[in-house]
Amino acid sequence: MEKLGLVRDIDLALHLPLRYEDETRVTPIAAAHEGETVQVEGRVRDSRVELRPRRQLIVRLADDSDELVLRFLHFYPSHQKTLAVGARLRVRGELRGGFLGREMVHPSFKAVNDDTPLATALTPVYPASAQLPQAYLRKAVSSALTRAPLDELLPPGSVPAGLPSLKQALLFLHHPAPEVMLATLEDHSHPAWQRLKFDELLAQQLSQLQAQRERAALRAPPLRAGAGGLHEQLLAALPFRLTGAQHRVTEEIARDLARPHPTHRLLQGDVGSGKTVVAALAATVAIDAGWQCALMAPTEILAEQHFRKLVGWLEPLGVPIAWLTGSQKGKARTRMLERVASGEARLVVGTHAVIQDRVVFERLGLAVIDEQHRFGVAQRLQLKRKLEGTPLEPHLLMMSATPIPRTLAMTYYADLDVSTLDELPPGRTPIVTKVFADGRRDSVIARIRDEVAKGRQVYWVCPLIEESETLDLQNATETHARLGEALPGVQVGLLHGRMPAAEKAAVMARFTGGELAVLVSTTVIEVGVDVPNASLMVIEHAERFGLSQLHQLRGRVGRGSVASVCVLLYTPPLSDTGKARLRAMAETNDGFEIARRDLDIRGPGEFMGARQSGAALLRFADLAEDSALLAQARQLAPQLLEHHPRAADAHVNRWLGSKAEYLKA
């Protein structure tokens, strides 16, 4: 029960049926049609165990109109007892044509008397696990419904017209009357369902607003760039001009940082839109104001790439930068920790090692998290605690190359300010995407030969098989060997997650420096790797990747002035989801359109992934379908908080319990 999250009575009351079985009527056997699921009642005329073609229990059941066969391939002595000749049974199952006449295979059954009453409501079938029988769950839910506090929390007039009370809605959904249209229950359009969706969306909007107000009451150091300071020096020293979008976003962030409340801003921009330089400019504001800045990335490769860029831009301006990762050991690590704690290092770049307990900042004013959806909520909360012991919180700037569709920004990110880089730097070339079945591998290798002959470089990406690092390694190693044979005289490198950090860095440096022409890699190169000379990417088993991951990988090419191609190799047959993903990749390069389609394909729970550390906050509402209810919930939430704060608290607690804490990150 605990694994299913069924801890409180209210959790059981909100554990809604997946579907319903109609046990309210009995169909005469003669009137039942093949392919239908029906309930029949009769007496057992014959019951025997047959051993051929396999051991099975065959039971003949007859009523006044006809008879049928019940077939059981798995059965116990207790079943044989209940199904003995002469027993009166009520049986429910799908009727099909069989060798011995019409039959039901493994129907549900129970012994009855002539006067055993029929069910008066549809029988619920609940989401369960193998160890949790339906009968037990039904009992638990029924008794929880009598105990759970289902009183109306919302003030009169606040629930949309035509919707029942929560208590009426839940009692109805757990035990609907037999005459109700099943379709309205299955497509969740029934008013009882609408009430649950509304309440859930309202709880989610309220918790976002509460988080926002709590943050507004917190203090953060106001950070302002001085005239002629680092910020202006960096702008003057950059070897390129900022795009209009970069200018706009930099100003939005600077305005935020100057306030005495913690910034909570998401910077989203498509692959290659220039987020790193915006982060560097934000860092200069914090450093100018006398505070430290931390920049955190999900992988060492990406963290190191940021580090190299930032060193190139900021060290000439006299900014001391520290580097922290999990693979650092001994004296080097101790020295870095000392530089951070003393405040000598004004900028600290690294992986999640930056938030470990041993890392103490002298004055952390700004934290920048790249690819923020790759960090769990707990890690983000940990970063915010780095100023504990002072009355101040650091400002938080999160960056993502997976754009958030507008409906999601309105719900999951209602508490965030969002800045968007919607313009690519000049000189970027559009990428052509081609989709090929695995059988065309040879022509793909021929294309690689042509690219390498022109002095260009190529990525070949193998999927990560999560269950088995060994298989994943074997796949990448075999591909590396095959390409080495097929491309004599061409330098082919190999990069995978199990290599020591130093070895990874060495391979990456050889590829970046042009020494390696082809790089066979697992998805460790997914984000941030910048090699302008790479013009071709081949993604093997593309059907195994998610849409946003494919888009991220594709963004590793097309970073120079050369026309670039991304080849998606798939192994047939493709599922419908696989087809939809590959079609989206071939049709558009726009990250926002990709994100919208990804949301359509996967649904919001999965799309959000790590934001809720796997706990999807919306169980009943659907953002695409329930936008009208969402608009009503958004309108009501601030009024409730203002005029009925206790009702608002009770409502959030009923729906979210401890999950509300997640929204603060």
Outline the structure in words.
With 665 residues, the protein is of the alpha/beta class. The chain has 3 domains: 136 residues, Beta Barrel (OB fold (Dihydrolipoamide Acetyltransferase, E2P)), CATH 2.40.50.140; 192 residues, Rossmann fold, CATH 3.40.50; 158 residues, P-loop containing nucleotide triphosphate hydrolases (Rossmann fold, 3-Layer(aba) Sandwich), CATH 3.40.50.300. It contains 22 helices and 22 strands. The chain has a 7-stranded mixed sheet with strand order 6-7-4-3-2-5-8, with no helix packed on it. It has a 7-stranded parallel sheet with strand order 12-13-11-14-15-10-16, with helices on both faces. A 6-stranded parallel sheet has the order 17-22-21-18-20-19, with helices on both faces. A hairpin with a 2-residue loop joins strand 6 and strand 7. The protein is globular and about 95 Å long. The two termini are 28 Å apart. About 2% of the residues have low confidence. It is an enzyme of class 5 (isomerase). It holds the Pfam family RecG_wedge. GO terms for molecular function: 3'-5' DNA helicase activity; ATP binding; ATP hydrolysis activity; DNA binding. This is ATP-dependent DNA helicase RecG. It comes from Methylibium petroleiphilum (strain ATCC BAA-1232 / LMG 22953 / PM1).
